[in-house]
Amino acid sequence: MSLPRLDFFALSHHAAKWPLPGKVLLGCALAGLVLVVGEAACLSPSRDRLKVLEVREGGLRQQLAEKVGLVAALEQQTHQFQAMQQRFAGLLQALSQEAEVPRLLEDIARLGVANGLAVEGIVLLDEQAHALYIEQPVQMAVTGGYHDLATFLSALAGLSRIVTVHDLALRSDGPLLRLDLQARTYRRTSPGVRSVELGQGVEPRPHFVYDASSLRDPFQPPALQVHHTPGRPTQAPDFARPRGALEAIAIDQFEMVGTLSRGVQRFALLRAASAVHRLAVGDYLGPDHGRVTAIHDGHVELVELFPNEQGAWLERPRTLVLNVNS
């Protein structure tokens, strides 16, 4: 038994005579076929393009958010850039246009005298050329007390020109300390650089100032500590006064070994090297015009005169404590 063949031509030819349900079913089939073909031919590529555009939109939104953040921080970055320009201008202004080695040596000698130090062995080394500046190293040796050396380094770093300190070597030199160091000053490579155009009136930055008033010398036992206090303005010393033999010896080389009384007058016994010296109130001691002001059982009070960084004279009290092991 064979099945009859389905003749689509005959069916479509007589479609007008179909009943209403058949016509509706045929219309739905044709509409579905149109939708499938339209989806495959038109809507699918458009949907793919839509996805690509949505991804691109997300990237653009992220870029927009980043740009908005940059615009919001632009003012702050502008202020930071201006501050960096002013700092750069200040550094350039601190660099000399010419070699100022003589002035630097004068400043070193002045600071050494102001702190009661002996500056020796100054040697100018070869200049070192860099991209924006020329470096002038100076090798030197400074001898004195611990606090005086620290104050000297603090004042050296506080000069108006840029001075840096390198290669420090500290060692004992009898009762004193010897500090070997290399100080480096700098000048511009091109005198034509105009730092004033970048920023005028750059305020100098505060520098560290060493204060030994509440500190002890780590290289001396407590019994031999010499107390340091800041100086106060006073009159210049009498340079016409004859200097005594004990004024050629640094204060740090003396140690108090006892006292001696004769009636109402009291004397202090101070030892330097192997010799013991007797001093009364009013006697001079040390290279800084030190004068004994009071003698007690356990210590001696004296006052020293020294110039400050501006050349004015200051008065500084010092104390020699009795060495109980003497």
From TrEMBL:
Organism domain of life: Bacteria
Name of the molecule in the record: Pilus protein
The organism of origin for this protein: Pseudomonas gorinensis
Taxonomic lineage: Bacteria, Pseudomonadati, Pseudomonadota, Gammaproteobacteria, Pseudomonadales
